[in-house]
Amino acid sequence: MRCAEALYTRGNKHFRTLEPYGITIAGSTTVVIRDTADLAAMWKNTTALSYDPFVSRMLIAFGISKCNVEKVFQSDPGSLMPKERKDCTLLHTENPRRKCYMHLQSEWFKKQLLPGDNLVRLQNDYLIYLRDVMNFDKFKSHFITYQGSDMDSPAVTVLLGKLSRCILSHCALRAFFGEELFQIEPDFAQVYQKWEDDSWKVFYNYPYIFAKDLHDARLRAIEALAQYYEIPDHQRHPCWLFRVMDRELEFVGLPRTDRAGMVMMICWAINNNAHYICFWMIIHMLCTPDILNTVRSETDACCTPDGSCKIEKLLEHCPALDGVWNEALRLYNASTAVRKAVTDCFIGNKIIHSGDQIFGPVRNWQLEEGFFGECARNFRADRWTKNKNLTRSKGFTPFGGGHTYCPGRYFAQRETYMFIAILLRRFELQVTDPSGLPILHPQVPPVEVNLPAPAAMRPVHDIYITLKRRAV
């Protein structure tokens, strides 16, 4: 199944109603949801429909042993600990419902990533690193293709996708772990990105022989994280979430390498999407100068004389930027709501048998004219400013829903807005060829539909842009 989206399209044309339909592959049944009401019912039914089997599969793909996967899903883990350790672990002291580690960890994600003190500290740390790295002398050679020689008007030509990914990961990983991780593995970001390039293979359990680069990069990144957690606690500076995860996983009984694998999986979940959305937002603005000028006017008003920006002002006073953000999420997010039936149940009038998988491909709804008006497959950022209620549309669920509603959505928006605001403030941008020659009528590249995407989709090819220092 090379292109899931094409398969869904064929299925939707074949089955004329909005009722769920089943696809059988290698003896296993996958039920495809077509109605947003059925999607809501799927998210609501947490008894018969479980997300845990997919998490277990991912954990094993990250090298966590099967016995340790069982440990993190063991209910009431605090009861298994010696009495003298119980009062030291959140698994006992803050777990009145006696949840398993994985379900309690979901609560910690919210504590770190939903609006509050922990998110404020994280975004402020991110901004410190962003302000420092957004300078020509800090740009990495592997995304620069040409550097102008005019000292009066310095310019560099870069690959937009690589620039977005490298800057965002540089800042986010340091905000998560501090500089100590990069003292252990200076190339950690590049190692992680090498793994991320092929991470779609994780869903298909590619063995080492067919995915050597994927597995080598994973092992190298996990080894660096394992060494990081060997540093005495007072000498490293992870964010609240990653400090708690390591401590509590140690209480559960996981060895350091498996704890590092768990942390890397969360890094992937947090890092894998924002840089693609940044790419799509920026290239659409560059191909539509009116949008670029309007957004720049908004973001400039949120920037400060010392080269920083006010994040709350960006979030509250930039309607054009919001429109570009929402439209990029709508068009380029291919996340799929997934559950597995652990008992027989009904979705609508259809019985779902125990063992069946249920998929809700959200991009199907996000491209429907019934939800988003005419030209729903075209990028039109103004649809969001014209209709303020569109973000509440039942067809717009880029971050999922139910108890798996992505808590990282706030940090993703903040890191994206800060990056774009400072980029537009400090530089003039133009689409060019690799040597910096302008392209008069640039085109947005096609989206890659033949590779699976956990959420945000990649372009078929990258785009060259030239940056010049802006006189402000």
UniProtKB/TrEMBL annotation:
It comes from the Eukaryota. GO terms for molecular function: heme binding; iron ion binding; oxidoreductase activity, acting on paired donors, with incorporation or reduction of molecular oxygen; steroid hydroxylase activity. Heme binds at residue 406. The keyword Hydrolase does not apply. Its cofactor is heme. Coiled coil: none annotated. Transmembrane segments: none annotated. Keywords: Heme, Iron, Metal-binding, Monooxygenase, Oxidoreductase. The keyword Ubl conjugation does not apply. Belongs to the cytochrome P450 family. This is Cytochrome P450. It comes from Zopfia rhizophila CBS 207.26.
